[in-house]
What does this fold into?
Amino acid sequence: MPPVTRAGDIAKARQRFFAGGALPEGLVAHPILRSWQRCAEHGLSSSARPRAEPVSARELRAVQEQNEKLRRLTRSEVESLHAEARLTDSVVILTDASGFVLDMVGSLDFADRASQVALRPGVIWNEATAGTNAIGTALVELRPIGVHGAEHFFEPHRMLACAAAPIIDPRGALAGVLDMSGHASIQHVHGLGLVNLAVEQIEHRFFEHGFEHCAVLRFHQHGEFLGTAREGILAFEGDRLVAANRHGLRMMGIDWSALDRTELRELFQRAEPSTEIQKLRAQRGDAFIGRMVQPARSQARPARQVGREPEPVFSPKVASALTRAIRLLDANVPVLVQGETGVGKEVFVRHVHAASNRCGKPFIAVNCAALPETLIEAELFGYDAGAFTGARQQGSKGLLRQADGGVLFLDEIGDMPLALQARLLRVLQDREISPLGGGKPVRVDFALVCATHRPLEQLVGAGAFRQDLLFRIAQYVIELPALRTLPDRMTLVRGMWKQFGGPAAGIALAPETELRLANHEWPGNYRQLAGTLRALLALAEPGSTIDADALSPEIRQSQATMSPAAGNGDGLPLARQTLDAMRAALEASNGNVSGAARRLGIDRSTLYRRLLWDKSAG
It folds into this structure.
């Protein structure tokens, strides 16, 4: 989310606009000012209470079903942002193209506060209803936008700090909005960057299905971006352009109006169908590289090998636990994975599934903390047609039946309501599921893995978790270590940066940046580190070096001299390696301190200070 506008400026802007009707040029960002003007034209009053009212549970369910494809396409990114949102006491919100809130996950405490201003599923947050807000304003502006505190039109919304980005489908239609909202009292430094990056991934995923009949061209000026969410994508029926992503249109210098009226030969001088990467030249002279994949009827589309979620960097201890977990899963022994939020519990379990005897069968992940309590029973156990108001006419199998033959992963099992725990225990004992509505019991076969960051034994003592269920799900317990306890954090930082594509894009982390990343405590563990690295990568220019000034304040404040736990495992202290790198840069710059600092991507004063410290210490 964007930096907080100076309180004095925003106060003056509101006074001029709402009291005197004057335009506060220079005091507030132009998108915010345009939104205020639109809200005034809608007849809204900033001091009035917003008119937003939630629909019924039945209506909410119906709209969610209408947008099931969007929800499915965005689920991975929503879950990835979920951990970041909980760490920053925020929520992640998905809306449809009208601003209707479909889903909300994240901090339960903030969700309760947000519901006081009707920020909840089942409510429309467009500008005409909710005034200036990140969701509604992104819908109108069709661009990522942050709205902080008093920038909101309505007074009650001052409590919010929101960042949102529109989701555009391959035909140029607005599909929805992804938003992250939190307390206005907190600076959410990377919110807008993370949301925008997540939307890029979603728009890239649109092309994974539904274009088998098209010739799909994937291209970029730099080959390292092929296969990533930054590549341009153009889809052709015959020679006619029928779909694209925003990167593809931008690189070709065209807009959505080019669809259905532009041919391949008008865009490129030559683009041969081939699975091999080829050089391309646009008709206007720009040079690209890419590949043109023919429709499925003439050539099977190759599996994507790049642009996927990077493989985790497992420590030897976790790698050993992974081997044990695979054996236990193959023996159908229930495993409980424990660890702090963000240590990679789901990633760990997915790798167990991929290496097990059930690797070709379903992997069904259920976040027990993310499902609404009113819907969790129907989602898990399924229901027959007409089982309750708002139920689908054809009924629903439920997530447990979908896991039949494969692996059922119950994440955050400690947040499952007690009543549901009793039903789950019966399923684990009988291996039968009875859908809501009195349907006939159905036999199921799945391997069970559960995960939690909560102390289940303490929950048992407090009466919040069933002891008999604990015994059933925790026949073997694996503890994943917190990132701050790892003995080799520098190698982890470098490995993750490489896997996210930083070096391939020519983007480097300055030595001091690496040091501060490696020495940070990372209360959110891998997810927080991954989110920070993604944000740095999203905001950096190709070929640049990221210095420590790009880090958030709390990371910048981490000591640049390493504790033993942050070492890089090669036997040399990191402080010594840093000094060696500084001396090498100084020598390569013929003793020019400014030149050496530029090579390292750090401030010259930092270089002076470290070298003087070494001299005095020696």
Notes: The longest strand covers residues 174-183. The chain has a mean pLDDT of 82. The radius of gyration is 26 Å.
